[in-house]
Write a structure and sequence with these properties.
Blueprint (H helix, E strand, L loop, with lengths): L2 E4 L10 H15 L5 E5 L12 E3 L10 H12 L1 H9 L3 E4 L12 E4 L4 H4 L7 H15 L2 E4 L2 H10 L7 E3 L17 H8 L3 E6 L8 H9 L6 E6 L12 H4 L6 E5 L3 H10 L2 E4 L8 H8 L4 E4 L4 H5 L4 E3 L4 H13 L1 H14 L5 H15 L4
Parallel strand pairs: 1-2, 1-4, 2-3, 4-5, 5-6, 6-7, 8-9, 8-11, 9-10, 11-12, 12-13
Helix pairs in contact: 1-15, 8-13, 11-14
Length: 374
């Protein structure tokens, strides 16, 4: 059985959940002694060492996160990919994104991470048309669908006519070599860079569904001396005035927009934070809470979508629509030492359930079940 994996949309410059998932599962696939494996990618940075199973497509536009990039990938999936699959005599195609062939030349599995463009069309004005017009056809013409949580599976069944088509769950995980309890060796450098002693942390691009505006408003109501809020991630274009909100609330000196940081710096922030707060309105999965738990940071999250499924009993849950409830949740986790320790202990236990090696085991199980004559 020859397995083809499509990761042409992967870009090492982007740190969103889809890119992290695509990269990590590919590394696990390449660790396996799978001789009949071919990987299609448009970047040379997909693996640190050469591998004959990787076929680099000489079109850097395929990984671009814009209209031209999306259109280029769509065309590539319909024409060159089909030719490549026939030439390779591929038995099955697994795509790490919700993209694929409208007229498959072999069984294909696509990955649907969430339905954000359906729920928040103003955030994804171009992608919403894809999710409304093209994705329904792809779902019908795929042999199976992979998604990342039970919550997203239910969303797919709600918004698309899947019939009896199988939808399988393969959970993401986190970088265990980076996000852990290991002692920081750069504490002085950390203090010089961020000038922080007591702070809470939020991670993610500030798109409206991340609910950063309400988080800042809730933080403004906290009465905890010397506590700061650190927001890691890009400032979203849809709400560019967000950066002015702390000044309006007279807390400008207590809110730090740190922008994007590398994973090593992020791990230090998790370990030093008094709490990690993730008040999202929707998540297909939510990797940051796992990263925080793995670093021994107590977690406050919304009780919506996939987050209870991901965090289990290892998080303090709040209503993301209620500013006072977010404020009260942060206040309790900061000041209740018994609760804090309970969340830390439960978090460290909870993250043991997630592992990319297990994810690939699951994906291979799915792939082989579709093509039994391997």
């Amino acid at each position: 059985m020859k397995i083809a994996i499509d990761v042409t949309g992967y870009s090492p410059s982007r740190k969103d959940g889809i890119n992290r998932y695509s990269f990590e599962i590919l590394q696990e696939f390449l660790k396996r002694p799978l001789e009949d494996l071919v990987v299609y990618t448009s970047t040379s940075e997909i693996t640190p060492t050469p591998d004959r199973r990787i076929q680099a497509i000489a079109n850097s536009m395929l990984s671009a996160n814009n209209f031209k990039g999306n259109l280029s990938r769509f065309i590539w999936h319909q024409l060159p990919l089909s030719v490549n699959l026939k030439r390779e005599n591929a038995s099955i195609l697994y795509s790490t994104v919700p993209e694929g062939m409208l007229f498959p030349v072999c069984p294909q599995i696509i990955t649907v991470y969430d339905v954000l463009p359906i729920l928040f069309p103003e955030v994804y004005p171009r992608l919403r048309y894809y999710f409304q017009r093209i994705l329904p056809i792809l779902i019908q013409r795929s042999t199976a669908i992979v998604t990342i949580s039970e919550s997203t599976k239910q969303d797919i069944q709600k918004y698309y006519n899947v019939g009896d088509k199988p939808i399988y769950i393969a959970n993401p995980s986190y970088r265990k070599d980076i996000f852990s309890l290991q002692l920081d060796t750069t504490v002085n450098q950390f203090k010089n860079t961020y000038n922080l002693d007591r702070f809470i942390l939020s991670v993610g691009e500030t798109r409206p569904y991340k609910n950063t505006r309400k988080l800042i408003q809730a933080f403004a109501r906290l009465n905890i001396d010397a506590l700061k809020l650190v927001v890691v991630g890009k400032i979203g274009k849809i709400d560019p005035t967000l950066i002015d909100l702390p000044k309006e609330l007279k807390i400008a000196d207590r809110v730090i927009f740190a922008g994007e940081v590398d994973d090593e710096e992020l791990a230090v922030l998790y370990r030093r934070a008094k709490a990690f707060v993730f008040p999202s309105l929707y998540e297909g999965f939510g990797i940051p809470p796992l990263e925080a738990m793995a670093c021994g940071c107590p977690v406050v999250v919304s009780k919506v979508a996939s987050l209870p499924e991901v965090c289990g009993d290892a998080a303090y849950y709040v209503n993301p629509h209620d500013i006072d409830d977010i404020c009260a949740g942060i206040d309790r986790v900061i000041n209740d030492l018994s609760l804090r320790q309970k969340l830390v202990d439960r978090g460290l236990e909870r993250v043991k359930k997630f592992d990319y090696a297990k994810t690939v085991d699951r994906l291979l199980e799915i792939i082989y079940s579709i093509q039994p004559d391997r």
